[in-house]
Amino acid sequence: MTHKLAVLPGDGIGPDIVREACKVLEVLRADFGLDVAWEEAPVGGTAYDQTGHPLPDTTLELAKSADAVLLGAVGGPQWDNLDYTLRPERVALLGLRKELDLFANLRPAKVFPELVDASALRPEVAEGIDIMVVRELTSGIYFGEPRGVEELPDGRRKGLNSLVYTSDEIERIARVAFEIARKRSGRVCSVDKANVLEVSQLWRDVVSHVGQREFPDVELSHMYVDNAAMQLVRDPKQFDVMVTTNMFGDILSDEASMLTGSIGLLPSASLSAEGAGMYEPIHGSAPDIAGIGKANPLATILSTAMMLRYSLDEIELADRIERAVGQVLADGLRTPDIAGEGERAIGTAEMGDAVVAALRG
Ligand SMILES: NC(=O)C1=CN([C@@H]2O[C@H](COP(=O)(O)OP(=O)(O)OC[C@H]3O[C@@H](n4cnc5c(N)ncnc54)[C@H](O)[C@@H]3O)[C@@H](O)[C@H]2O)C=CC1
Ligand SMILES: CC(C)CC(=O)C(=O)O
Ligand SMILES: [Mg+2]
């Protein structure tokens, strides 16, 4: 049966990088028998400009009816002053995640052997890093109520966001992390701020219970988020699976990207319990390099591989994409973000073309 995809390029570099991922899909369809069809739809600031809303009903319906969603990125300075009820990041991105119940965000941070020198770390520290950040994605402080900015009687203003987790939300993300750990090294590190936050005390308690009751074979440790941020740089190989809240996972995965060389390399999968999946690079819309051919498309191409693996059950083709990316890096091809000093850099489209050529062998 034909795999039906919703492709949502979005804003900034979104269209630049999604174009390259679609080239990869074209080749898989033409040369490797992947039975796939996709429809594009506007999302984010672009959709707001076209329709008055960052997540038009037609886009949401397309996403809901698809077998998987491929997303570029949303947001940018031209929409920064919009009222919060219309901001692309909040309405479109958080809206899609919530509407599709994509509570489990998998963000693998793996150092390609060819890119050890591009890491922000010393080569001996960088070599072999392979971390899976499991981030809760549909709750926590990005979604908690009450929220807002209000005027106080004395003329000051008060800004408020709420960090809320219920035990069932913690249980389900913990299970995802433990299951993944079983297929990897059998170790989970849960990251929280239980020395200060009541929510984190609940988080730690629930993760521990799930571990003891259902996954006694998996080794569980706990770490405060400030220490985890430091340990990621000091000794990243101590981590295998990290499980954490929405905001901590957002921040730690951007940090982890620099261990691998660039934020332009890290893919992600966002999954629901019912089988929905959305795939996007972990970075944003990078307005500073939009439309000028400097964006690294590999995070999006690797997100496409995750889509084949997790939503379409095309494991062999997912492996092929990952091998092709390894091949272009082994061939010395570098976009500006991963080029060393004096090294020639290629553009976004050339990098996409190189992956296509490597796929074709
Ligand atoms: N998933 C999404 O759609 C996300 C959207 N955003 C939005 O994106 C906009 C820009 O946010 P920033 O904080 O600047 O974060 P960003 O991730 O867009 O950019 C941070 C830095 O990384 C660089 N960068 C990002 N992706 C790259 C790539 N593929 N290749 C090479 N360099 C890359 C950018 O040029 C910039 O210097 C904001 O409106 C923000 O809200 C931010 C994060 C996630
Ligand atoms: C733009 C935010 C809502 C989310 C974010 O930065 C992310 O998911 O990486
Ligand atoms: Mg982020």
TrEMBL record:
Principal location: cytoplasm
Localization of this protein: Cytoplasm
Keyword Transmembrane attributed: no
Residues that coordinate or bind Mg(2+): D226, D250, D254
InterPro entries reported in the protein's UniProt record: IsoCit/isopropylmalate_DH_CS, IsoPropMal-DH-like_dom, Isopropylmalate_DH
Protein's name in the database: 3-isopropylmalate dehydrogenase
UniProt keywords, alphabetically: Amino-acid biosynthesis, Branched-chain amino acid biosynthesis, Cytoplasm, Leucine biosynthesis, Magnesium, Manganese, Metal-binding, NAD, Oxidoreductase
NCBIfam families to which the protein is assigned, alphabetical: leuB
Cofactors: Mg(2+); Mn(2+)
Family: Belongs to the isocitrate and isopropylmalate dehydrogenases family. LeuB type 1 subfamily.
